[in-house]
Amino acid sequence: MAFGRRNQMEIPKPPDVEKNVLSCEGDDCNGWMREEFASEDELCPLCGGSMKKEIRTLPEIDKNNNFYGR
After folding, report:
1. Which of 3, 19, 53, 61 has the fewest C-beta atoms under 10 angstroms from its C-beta?
2. Dihedrals φ, ψ of 35, to 5°?
3. Is 35 in contact with 68 (CB distance < 8 Å)?
4. Is 61 exposed, middle or buried (0-12, 13-18, 19+ CB in 10 A)?
């Protein structure tokens, strides 16, 4: 008998897309954010350093509710 074992639904993964991101130029900082969520000042929220534009392959998310599929 297996108590507590429920049928697990598989949650669909969002497709990966190439997105523009802003990445921190600081040597000791790994901060980055999607360009669509960045503020106008384009400063790193972690260290306050300058940011540069890059392209990364990331999962697609919905900007309005931050959860894919709902």
Report:
1. 3
2. -60, -35
3. no
4. middle
Query: What range defines the domain where residue 34 resides?
Result: 16-59
Number of domains in the chain: 1
Distance CA 13, CA 18 (A): 16
Is 8 part of a structural domain of the chain? Answer: no
Tokens of 51: 């940011």
* pLDDT profile of the chain (70 residues), mean per 10: 72 86 93 87 89 92 60
How many CB atoms are closer than 10 A to CB 29?
Answer: 15
Q: What is the pLDDT at residue 40?
A: 82
Answer whether 0.85 is exceeded by the pTM. no
